[in-house]
UniProtKB/TrEMBL annotation:
It comes from the Archaea. Residues 65-85 are annotated as: Disordered. Pfam families: Ferritin (PF00210). Signal peptide: none annotated. One of its GO terms (cellular component) is cytosol. Keywords: Iron, Iron storage. GO terms for molecular function: ferric iron binding; ferroxidase activity; heme binding. This is Rubrerythrin. Residues 1-151 form the Ferritin-like diiron domain. SUPFAM superfamilies: Ferritin-like (SSF47240). Coiled coil: none annotated. It comes from Halorubrum persicum. GO terms for biological process: intracellular iron ion homeostasis. PROSITE patterns: FERRITIN_LIKE.
Length: 151
C-alpha cells in the first residue's frame, strides 16, 4: 500500500533537490577568488549527484502511480543559499549548503519513517541511500566551514 504521506514526501524531496541544483549551480558561477575554487569544484560535483537524486525520486513516484511536480507547483525555500551580495563571501555559501543538506537529511529521515509505516521497503531503501549521500555532503562542507571559520 503506498501512503499519501510517502508520495507527498517524495514530491517535496524532488522539488528540494531541483532547488538545490539551481542554487549550487548559481553559486558555483557567482563565487570569485582563489579561495572559492575548491568550493566551486565541490558544488559542481554535487550538482550531478543532486540531479541524480531528483531523477530517482521522480522514477519512484512514477512507480507509485504518482508524478513529480512541475515548476508551477514549486515554492522556493532556500533563503540562506541565495548568491551572496559579496561574491567573495564563500562562508555564506558554505553555511547555505549546510542548511540545504540538513533540510534534505530531515526530509529523508521522515521519508524512511513514512515508508516503513506504509510497508514500502523500496522507497525506504531509496531514502536510506539518499540520506547517506546527503550525510557525506554535510561532512565535506562541515570541513570547509571549520577551515573558513578559523580564518
Ligand atoms: Fe540530494
Ligand atoms: Fe546533498
Amino acid at each position: 500500500m503506498s501512503s499519501e504521506r510517502v508520495v507527498e514526501l517524495l514530491r517535496e524531496a524532488y522539488a528540494d533537490e531541483i532547488e538545490t541544483v539551481m542554487n549550487y549551480q548559481t553559486n558555483a558561477i557567482v563565487l570569485d577568488g582563489v579561495r572559492a575554487e575548491e568550493i566551486k569544484e565541490s558544488l559542481q560535483q554535487d550538482i550531478q549527484e543532486e540531479l541524480g537524486h531528483a531523477e530517482q525520486l521522480g522514477q519512484r513516484l512514477k512507480q507509485l502511480d504518482a508524478r513529480p511536480p512541475g515548476s508551477a507547483e514549486f515554492t522556493a525555500k532556500q533563503d540562506s543559499l541565495q548568491p551572496p551580495a559579496d561574491s567573495t563571501d564563500v562562508l555564506s555559501v558554505i553555511n547555505g549548503v549546510l542548511d540545504a543538506e540538513e533540510g534534505a537529511i530531515a526530509t529523508y529521515r521522515s521519508l524512511i519513517d513514512a515508508a516503513e509505516d506504509a510497508d514500502d521497503p523500496v522507497t525506504e531503501d531509496l531514502a536510506v541511500t539518499l540520506l547517506s549521500d546527503e550525510e557525506a555532503h554535510r561532512t565535506e562542507f562541515r570541513g570547509f566551514q571549520k577551515e573558513y571559520q578559523r580564518d
